[in-house]
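Extended Data, panel c. Modelled sequence:
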Amino acid sequence: MKTTTTFSPKHLVMIITMTVFSFSSMTTAFFLMGIKAFPYFVGAALFYFIPYAIIIAEFTGVYKNHIGGLYQWLAGHLSEKIAFIAAFLWYCSYFIWMISLFMKIWIPSSILLFGKDFTKKTSSIPYFSTSVLIGLLSIFAVIITLFFVSKGFKGIASSLYLSGIMMTILIVASLGGNLLLWITNRSDILPNLTASFNGIQTDSQSGQSLVGQLSFLIFAITAFGGLDTIASLVDKTGKQKKQFPKLLIYSSFLVVICYFLGILLWSGGTDLNNLKANNTVHLGNLMYELMEHLGYACGHALSLSSTHSQILAQLFTRFTALTLLLSYISLLSTIFYLPIRTLVEGTPKHYWHPRLKHKNKHDMPIYALLIQGSLISLFILGIILGSQYVVFLYNQLTLMTNISRAIPYLLVALAYPSFKKKQLTDNPTSVLIQSTSRATVISGSVIISIALAIGFQLYQPLSKGNLLQSLTLLIGPLLFSLIAYLLYQRFHRRKELTENT
């Protein structure tokens, strides 16, 4: 059974770039910080993202034929126990995120079909509240995703490719639309840029201290997330395996360029003060409101009538919804498969029951996917039918994943110097970084960036007196690590019993 997919280098760069780049993160950064987001994105790019992309590129270059991904990288250079705990933390963060995504997928669906978000409206169907309807639809989406993923990697690859094309068009449309406003409304550029720069006040009276703002660093770092997930596809890329590390580096630079161009052009084309004065705009509908406003403004810039400008605004809004919907579908398909693949297939044989590793005719671990889908559905069912305590528990679990997702990245960076030392000994000709001292600097840069981001994320709720949220952020990785440790101990006890009998 053929399990690889042939992409041209250009197509693979587009898929990697559009998978890592987040349109919503870019618009959110503009809305929250304006041009003042630049220092945070520069810092995140220089000290975290580019170094981390180099680390991932080198790991994928060596382990291009392995399916273990993050587990494989850590097991050979730290320890098997740490590798499993990190892989389990990584999986748990994606599992909780999948629940959220399955429930959020209906927002762009509603906007695409009706032009408005009806997910917050009261349901007109007797005995079915809006939350129950969304939950049932989300469980239906889980079933469809399970069916789609079980048909093989080719469908996942196609969804990534289609999503990448649509996201590319959306970025070109948003940047091109704003560029048109820069050209046609030149007198507004400087005031808009000034409003963007002054969008956040740093004085103590505003209650937004400089240290408090530094918590935005965690947002900038997460805006560059997903590189490790897409890197797990290296063994599926056919003829591009050898080029994959270089393509990963090229893509990382394109991601950085997209963020900077996006924030700059939105800042010049949109009055941030007017946007924030609009009480109907919030982070949930920000992307759609911005694109609707952009479409209407472009219509006026092109001397269209008010009616035609409104039609153009609706086209921009619905195309954004379509793109985000396809992006969610491809993302869900990818993370529905890759994390469970790494955790179950990428770990040693004695870790799991053989049935979990059993594959169908499409080379998919069907029983592992079935169990995962069932657990996600049960969680969603518990959220929509449970009491306020169940909802509270889910919210706390979501908070728990924030740091849990960052710790595996930190451990990968920690393993890099050891990996580099071995790589330079075994195969010194095919490397990106030529010395262990440079590898140590790169590793240290990523570790410090992640450690600072975690520290500021812990500080933010604590500074507002929310001790519970800070404790939850800490309890999460500790709880998931404890579960992983107990599983690891069980696996090895079972292995010892098998060897002794």
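The CA atoms of residues 119 and 350 lie 45 Å apart. This feature is highlighted in the accompanying rendering.
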